[in-house]
Amino acid sequence: MRQTILLLCCFLFLSNILQAQTSGTVKGYITDTINNSTLTNASVSLLRAQDSILVKFTRAKENGYFELNNIKAGKFILLVSYPKYADFVDQFSVDSTKLIQDYGTINLADKGRLLSEIIIKGNRAAMKIKGDTLEFDPKAFKIEPNAKVEDLIKQFPGIQIDKDGKITAQGETVTKVLVDGEEFFGDDPTLVTKNLRADMVDKVQLYDKKSDQAAFTGIDDGQKTKTLNVKLKEDKKNGHFGKVELGGGTDNFYKGQAMFNKFWDKKKLAAYGILGNTGQVGLGWGDKDKYGQSSYQVTDDGGINFSNNGNDEFESWDGQFNGEGIPVAQTGGIHFDNKWNNDKESINANYKIGDIKLSGNRNDINQQNLSSSSIYNTSDKSFEKNMTKNKLDLAYEIKIDTTLTLKLNVDGLFKNSKSNEAEMRKGTDEQGNQLNNLNQTTTNDVDDKTFNINTLLTKKLKKTGRTLSLNLSQSSTDSKSDGYLNSRAEFFTTSVISPDSTKVVDQNKVNNISNTAFKSNLIYTEPLSKSLSAILNYGFNASSGKADRKSFNQSSNGDYNVLDSIFSNNYELDQTINQLGAIFNYKKNKTVFSFGSKFSGVNFKQYDVYTDSSFKQKFINYMPQINYQYNFKQREVLRLSYNGNTDQPTLEQIQPIRNNQNQLNTILGNPNLDPSFRNNFRGNYYSYKVLSNQYFSVNGSYNFTLNPIISNVFTNDRGESISQFVNLENKATTSYFLNSNFGKTIKAIDMTAGIGFSANKNVDYNYINTKLNQTKNSSYSFNLNLSKYKEKKYNFNTSFGPIYNVADASINENSDSNGWGFNGNFWTNIELPFKLEISTDGNYQYNGKTQVIQETFERFIWNASITKKFLKTDNLRVSITGRDLLNQNVGFNRSAFNGNINQSTYTTIQRYFMFSVSWDFSKMGGGEIKQN
């Protein structure tokens, strides 16, 4: 017994000795760089190098001395911080050969005295998470003199900006950019990113912007917009700045741009003008979703928009330029916002005017797969379009007292669009025999007017968390169009040269469509406990619409005054919606959880003026929702959500309006359609480590629709189709999306590297000649990102990787269009002596052969410029630019849908050279333009 106890004591003694031998110490003194004064209470943190987890912490004593003991063997990071001083960061190891890390004296540098030649060991947190907001710190990135916000955002991990200024964050498109939380010219993000100076920015926030009422109450109404908010430095909010640029080039290409901004007190005044035909002008007016929904689509809250037919050649052109054709654009606008009365009142106003002309040609090759054969269609189209638009919006907010706030939004739109299109289409069978031939021209002139007013009243009641909010809105739209359709369709029997039947249309189309809508939503929130609250809402909507469409044939004297009663119609629609909802919200510590549902009952009546007949329908929409968020720590968060929606059949599916604008396809109505139910699951995870500048994100969604509404198409042997919508029982259409990004700074080569993966898949169904066809469309891509910045020398960024596309249909084993592709992008700036700068960027695209398309497509679009900078602040620049130097910018697109394969080529902007002069001017609170 005594021997056992003696052995145990010896073992414990030896263990303590061994442990003491493998335990280390780190120590030192912390002083000021300039006068060597001690920095008492400076914070000293010991972090594990592997994952930046805090191991030990202490503060410096009165003499600046610190010491951390009992450090186990391993690799560690020492972080020393003191207010208004630059951080000190260093990595070291503790092992049997080195148990004591003595730093001696650590001199911290005053941030206010730092010069560009001083090198400090340390990192700054590039980003952090605040609730559902990701916040970037511009001070952690490199900013060149005269750099714009766009140049800053390009360096943010997980965010990409393409050559046109389109911003993608974590796989989703950013559609709104705010300045200090306020609209800045509304719906064109590039007016912020391409014109505001980067050195004015204090921080940039990324989040999903909710509606004003949802932000106040916490109830998710589904209205979310991926948003960047640019917050300016306080000392940059007084003064003025702007830019003027002019350029002229070969082949009559030209551009011009001017922007002026004046900030004083709490006021902002901005004006801009843009003109050119290079396609690189601010055309992102983004009004299509707001002002021009097509068809009679039932929205999530049961609303129905009574507008033009889907795929109607006589809809007004929305003015969007997507690279197809040659644009000539002139736009301008003015912005003003102000706060007064101790910030209790504010106003935000924007006015924009613009004109865009677009012309070009398009060629399409289409393979239409049937159950036992295929039809091959070719199409040649030419088009000329023109749109002129005036838009005004105004927002006024007043805080009546500490508990009551009123916000008023008003906007109006006046638009005229003209279009002229000509198309020749030909269909053949697999042996090359001609089946049909279509020759068609359309002209159209449309005037659109839109007016919206929205009022939000919010009230905080006496009990904390108890609130009441009321949202009221009124909208009206009016569209008048006058156009002509001239169409000749010929149909052939196999082996017969001459057509055996012909359909001819020569008509004047006159449309007069108007809508008015009133919406209301009352929300009450009640705290049930410290962690749980209930949110109740009731909404009432009422709308009415009129659609008078007339088709006139020619009379004997050549006038278009003979009404065609078959293809003319006059409908009136009235509808009312009642909505109830309840959401419960739980929030405690790091967890936020909400669940509940909304229900809406819809009654609508459609009246046919010509036939004096009515079509009525009642239905219930069910919209459950669940949201979960867990904040692991400040820079690590997980979010999960589920939303369900009842999708009612559209009026176009139930009772389509007859039209003769596509003589190869006739649509029949199906009044027996049942609603479908759409389920959507979303999730994302994000983490960021400061010291290693390492980020990781995963974003994904999965959707499936029960009892979906699909098309049932019957096509005869001459290419004529009759289609109808039907419900698909016992099967669901599905889709998913997944995007993941990982990146970090590689210290050995001083380069930031990242990898990204993206995948999406859609499984859809349709009937083709009574046979059920399943189509699978998916895309998988992998990319590698590399970037490096060397101050006053060069800036380099590249992203490249393969893509694999899947497009197959069960209807025809010869319809698969699976194939590999490759995409690559790069851009770089090189600083040369004598204030010269070379900039270049490129895009490489490759599409390989598929079973259907036995041709590869490859192009490399390369742009370059050389710039000479003048003046002390380098803000006067003279440039020579070459766009598409290899002349390979051929408009090209491939797509697959419902078993049909389509390949398009179209007119687009190709090689040109341009000489330009730009001048950035500024006089802000911080003085003339300076480098950070």
From TrEMBL:
Keywords: Signal. This is Outer membrane protein beta-barrel domain-containing protein. InterPro entries: Carb-bd-like_fold, OMP_b-brl_3. Residues 1-20 form the signal peptide. It comes from the Bacteria. Residues 459-919 form the Outer membrane protein beta-barrel domain. Residues 433-442 have a biased composition (Low complexity). Residues 422-442 are annotated as: Disordered.
